[in-house]
Amino acid sequence: MTPETFVDILREALWLIIVLVSIMVVPSLIVGLIVAIFQAATSINEQTLSFLPRLIVTLLALMVAGHWITAMLMDHFYNLVERIPSIIG
């Protein structure tokens, strides 16, 4: 196994992690920002007010993108399995 092959596999895996995590985190961050602006404008300092909308948006994002996330993970796994001969020999 050459160092270039290892770096390529690591780069692809890290990019996949960044994409999959951002699918779940970015909508939650946007909703958290909107709720925080609303709380600042109305002077409501309730901590639980921001939790429920973020939870619901995160679960909805997982429900909507779940099939795509699974497909990307499976494609990456199949790619790794197909590379085994070139990695070993």
Task: Walk me through this protein's architecture.
With 89 residues, the protein is an all-alpha fold. The chain has one domain (10-84). Helices cover 91% and strands 0% of the residues. It contains two helices and no strands. It has helices at residues 3-42, 48-88.
Could you provide a short overview of the structure?
By secondary structure, the protein is mainly alpha-helical. Helix 1 (3-42) packs antiparallel against helix 2. It is 91% helix and 0% strand.
Q: Helices and strands in order, then pairings?
A:
Layout: H1 3-42, H2 48-88
Q: What sequence of helices (H) and strands (E) makes up the elements?
A: HH
From the helix content, strand content and strand pairing, which structural class follows? mainly alpha
Question: What do the pLDDT scores average to?
Answer: 91
- Taken together, the total number of domains comes to 1
Count of separate DSSP helical elements: 2
Number of strands: 0
Helical residue percent band: over 70%
Strand content: under 5%
Low-confidence stretches: none
Radius of gyration (Å): 19 Å
For the structure shown, list the relevant keywords.
single chain, 89 residues, mainly alpha, 91% helix
